[in-house]
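Lab manual, section 2.4: Encoding a predicted structure.

Procedure: take the sequence of the chain (229 residues), apply the prediction step described in section 2.3, and record the output as structure tokens. A sample record is shown.
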Amino acid sequence: MISRVEGEPGAGVAVPPGEVEEPVEDESTRGQRREDGLRWFGDFYFRPFLWAFGKSGISPNVITILGMGCGVVCGYFLAVGNVPLAAVFFALSGVLDLVDGYVAKKLDKVTVFGSFLDSFSDRISDAAIYIGIAVLYLRRGEGIYVGLALVLLVVSFLISYTRAKAEGIGVVCKSGLMSRAPRFLVLGIGLFFNGLSPWVLKGVLWLVAALSLETMVSRIFEVWKGTRA
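Recorded output:
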């Protein structure tokens, strides 16, 4: 018996009688599972915050704007060299980013504008944080890390743009190791543990840059495959 139709991965591979064929999991599905897993982790450990905001009746859009504000404040404290305080506002921004979607679903207030505002605020927060990192290293005279922060800014925007554009033409685009959720988690580790050594944040920036480039290339390739089908 032939396991798959022509054109699918593994087409023409015979499956012995009596054996059940396991579904093939593509890179896009794995990427979505990683992102969902990280969001579950955040939901679990920040459940008290989620419950409190859900009971308060605050509009999800207000929470989204508060999260964006915390991201901007994080960028400011990075720019002036106060990394510990920047890490605190970075974490608050992350918590609020988790909470807004939860509250929207809990209160049945999921809207198209809310989705747009969430994406818009994510881009503002990302820009503020990466520019803050760039200014931090500019003040320290470490030009290579100024450039690295600006590369991260551009690549993070391109990753999001690629996914949005792909979904606009009907192509699923969620592959890669460094979507926003894992990128946010790894950067948070770098900010919180930077006090141990300045090389912690520097190492994290190199790691995020490498995996972000992998994600961007992976998504471009995924769109190329999707448009050929």
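Check your result against the sample. Confidence is low (pLDDT under 50) at residues 1-15.
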